[in-house]
Amino acid sequence: MKSLNDNVKVLKGVGDRKISILQSLGIETIYDLLYYFPFRYEDLMVKSLDEIIGQEKTVISGVVASEPVVSRFGYKKSRVNVRLLVDNESIMVTFFNQPWMKEKFNTGEQVQVYGKWDQNRRSLTGMKVLNLKDEDDTVDSIYSVNKNIRQSTLKTLIKQAYDEYIDVIYDYLPDNLIKKYKLVHEKQLIKGMHFPDSVEETENARRTAKFREFFLFECGMQNIKNINEISKAGISLNYDREIIKEFINSLPFELTNDQKKVTQEILDNMNSSKHMNRLLQGDVGSGKTIIATIALFAAVTAGYQAALMVPTEILAEQHFNKIFKMLSPYNVTVDLLVGSLSIKKRTEKIENLKNGKTNIIIGTHALIQKDVKYKNLGLGIIDEQHRFGVQQRKELRLKGENSDILAMTATPIPRTLAITTYGDMSLSIIKELPKGRLPVETYWLRTNKLEQLYRFVKRELQNNSQIFVVTPLISESEKIDLINAEEIYEKFQKIYGQDYKVSLLHGQMNSQEKDEIMSDFEKKNIDILVSTTVIEVGVDIPNASVMVIFDANRFGLSQLHQLRGRVGRGDKQSYCILIADPKNEIAIERMRIMTESNDGFKLAQKDLELRGQGDLLGSQQSGLPNFKVGNPVTDFNVLQIAQQEAQIIFEMDPYLDNDNHKMIKSYLERKMKSAGNFD
Ligand code: ADP
Ligand code: MG
């Protein structure tokens, strides 16, 4: 029997090569193909010549006045010229490198051509020949494809899939919601998204697609919440209040009020028999590490093991050093587990976890690998939560008997969104930064002003500061014309190398090399650290007070904010210098916002507004799910309604047994199986 879960190979013309090309677009099944929506539409309304303004893309309609002429130049280059009579004017239409276009023009016939108009020459660079029934306005769907597959090929495949599978396209949305919100049924949705006959049809389809996307997402959230409710019973960590109090009092600083408040929330939650599933949100530099340390220690005083999982080895190492130093005096054994250990060392560490010799383990993904077993894991903390998925949170939890979980994130999510997207978690928020912090001053320079940067860096070095210099990629990893780390390193070496120590750190180094460099930087043996974004998250070096970011326009705002957060951690005035030559208005606006705002929440919001969804860096960094059609900021009201409707359904039918909900159920089952990941 046919099913949308069928592999795309059932389609005509799809062999091994196509399969792998489609896979690179994330398409494996008929379902994937049908729901691979266009990212934009072109308005294909025919315009008369005097309606066209300047150089715009447009459709003209005319009669073919002469046989098309093909000229070829060298290898693969060609030009097709054809004259059309449009509104009594003879217009030259040229197609570059599409010799087959010749076939589409027969003298005397009426045709419509889409292309770019040149007002001065009164000619058109043709892009495609259309097949419009009448001169009604219509739209054309545009897909994001790569160089291995053409728009038209993809569209043909989608059409084939649609025609052959139309009978097994079922509604995901319950009927009452379709009626209530005047949405369209699934078949119309797919047709309207891919092959609309009118602008109105696309709009209805898009409206439905947005709602559907948010709704299914929110159903996922409700489902996770359900599962958590079911496994509500947690461990009651009866920690030693006296020791924890003593520890807090012995810290070199006083906790801020917000830190005190969230510490209490977390400890209470750990102490109760209710399972903890909590998100700790606080802007960069707000002091989350110490909160984590307190919680880890508390779990140990309650007789349990505790784990801290972080996204990079550098960060693991740094947390380990700090926490080791703080807790060793209390006879707590702290250990480090990362991917790059010798087998012997690893075996030893795993053994100590299993027999309970290790109280606190700090590490990367290595902590949740299959063969890593704990004696009694009571608490798992995930730092930089946005770098991990729900699945990994779950794996850590299951390393104990439903261990308490604390996820920490520096990437701020607008609160309203946090509630809808992290709906399954309790929330603790730190708003206030430790006292005495001066906001980082941010400047933006174009590359022709680098002399200014060099003078500034010199002055800061004389002030005894340490400098971070960040470059996006190292040579060879990609061919985009980025100034690469090595080149920048050499430049800094040349300028400052005589008097100061300049070092280079990049992702291709092994972890021992990285550790050595980081610890040299920490010990102030290095003055300027040139690095790729391996230092992006979490690293804490209070004496560093300048962050220089090259090609800053290649980063998302949240990511820039993270990087900037590496400085401004001591009581010195710190600076962030963005080097960028933005080419368009939005990019300029982004640089401007960075120089004006230090508020991570505001930046995250702006990032979403400016970059929209579906942007790799942007969405990953924002910690938000990657919505394809809807934008959780601009379509926030739709998201809210979708959430309410999802809630209602789960209240009435928590196991989705009702026939109207069976497609939702199958969707969630599929999701859970494939990625197990809703964010
Ligand atoms: P983040 O929230 O970004 O993870 P960290 O935990 O790395 O921030 O803390 C940033 C710096 O602030 C660290 O050097 C830490 O020791 C220091 N810090 C944390 N809390 C306080 C406080 N209450 N007063 C002064 N400094 C603090
Ligand atoms: Mg941190």
Outline the structure in words:
With 679 residues, this protein is of the alpha/beta class. It folds into four domains: 1-39 and 141-168, DNA polymerase, domain 1; 45-131, Beta Barrel (OB fold (Dihydrolipoamide Acetyltransferase, E2P)), CATH 2.40.50.140; 241-430, Rossmann fold (3-Layer(aba) Sandwich); 441-597, Rossmann fold, CATH 3.40.50. The chain is 39% helix and 18% strand. The chain has 22 helices and 21 strands. The strands form four sheets. A seven-stranded parallel β-sheet has the order 11-12-10-13-14-9-15, with helices on both faces. Strands 16-21-20-17-19-18 form a six-stranded parallel β-sheet, sandwiched between helices. Helix 5 (186-194) crosses helix 6 (199-230), helix 8 (257-271) runs parallel beside helix 9 (288-301) and helix 18 runs antiparallel to helix 19 (600-611). Residues 474-482, 613-623 and 675-679 have low confidence and may be disordered. Bound molecules: adenosine-5'-diphosphate and magnesium ion (MG). Adenosine-5'-diphosphate is lined by residues 253, 255-256, 259, 282, 284-290, 410, 434, 540, 542, 565, 569.
